């Protein structure tokens, strides 16, 4: 018997195949049983007709329990009513393991219960769809940067210093000295860009930020490209082309998953480069006109401010040229205005907030040294970083995209805790 997976059944229409699967759900009506099967690659309905199978097969289908593992054999048929487009007319069923009292039933469950059972909740259609979209974004990321001539570089997770200060870092002992879990690989990626030209990293980052909002995780993944000889405008162009690429890739390759989640794909179809942009100055004026009397020049934007700005656009929008005082020490000042830097945050539509932060980096040795002094950072710890400006310094730029916020926006889920397999939150380190 030919063995296959649910995602490949389109190759076997009107043929009999065997699939290893789990019983996601089932129902029966006397002479017919419907098995909702999943195998990790997708979901398909298995139809068991009492009059067409041996009695033991039909009784097995009626008695098999939710999340039991099985080998199911049957004929693949086209089915217009199925979201997947196919169903299986079952001829044989072998139970591998009978599950007993599976805790996540088809009824409604509270968030805390589902989070306590995250290792099982991942099996649900909704969570399966989100994880498949996450996987497609990762695949499309590698595709984009490989096609653009970038090299993948892996920065360290344990660092001796912090690119944006140590107030929100997890500290640990590294034998007899202090170390921190990385909050960004950016500084190391700058060193790599001086060696390889265009580089990107993709890895975990950690923020000891005591936040409980729907946009925050303690541990999350970032894509961080850095590019030698790229100035501010070059950087924005890469960002919008990259984001447009991953959105269009999800639309093309995850249509079933987007439908499962009830995502309005018309909104995603509008996400093509170029993206609109406004300056920080313009954003402040816009917010004040919208009734945000609390916001003044020099203030950072919160979630309500970002959402109000994003609502005026049907694509992600860049907010550029933030005040120097709001941004990290390494950002290049605007040559025409020293009070702002050549940076941009990319704000996703529909209230999902900032998904990218990026800037042109300071490439002048003396200016970077001055900034380190102003931020009271340890000059010895940053000696290697300063040396990048001593030996063939060039204009260079980069950015960081938060994977989980991007997954949340593209898939349309409300909270980032659903966009990572095992979320680490302020009150959660289990499972």
From TrEMBL:
SUPFAM superfamilies: Class II aaRS and biotin synthetases, Nucleic acid-binding proteins. Signal peptide: none annotated. Residues 131-431 form the Aminoacyl-transfer RNA synthetases class-II family profile domain. It comes from the Bacteria. InterPro entries: Aa-tRNA-synt_II, aa-tRNA-synth_II, aa-tRNA-synth_II/BPL/LPL, Asn-tRNA-ligase, Asp/Asn-tRNA-synth_IIb, NA-bd_OB-fold, NA-bd_OB_tRNA. The keyword Protein biosynthesis applies. It catalyses: tRNA(Asn) + L-asparagine + ATP = L-asparaginyl-tRNA(Asn) + AMP + diphosphate + H(+). CDD domains: AsnRS_cyto_like_N (cd04323), AsxRS_core (cd00776). It is found in: Cytoplasm. Its EC number is 6.1.1.22. It holds the Pfam family tRNA_anti-codon. The keyword Cell cycle does not apply. GO terms for biological process: asparaginyl-tRNA aminoacylation. Its main location: cytoplasm. It is an enzyme of class 6 (ligase). Keywords: Aminoacyl-tRNA synthetase, ATP-binding, Cytoplasm, Ligase, Nucleotide-binding, Protein biosynthesis. HAMAP family: Asn_tRNA_synth (MF_00534). Homodimer. Belongs to the class-II aminoacyl-tRNA synthetase family. This is Asparagine--tRNA ligase. The lineage of its organism: Bacteria, Bacillati, Bacillota, Bacilli, Bacillales.
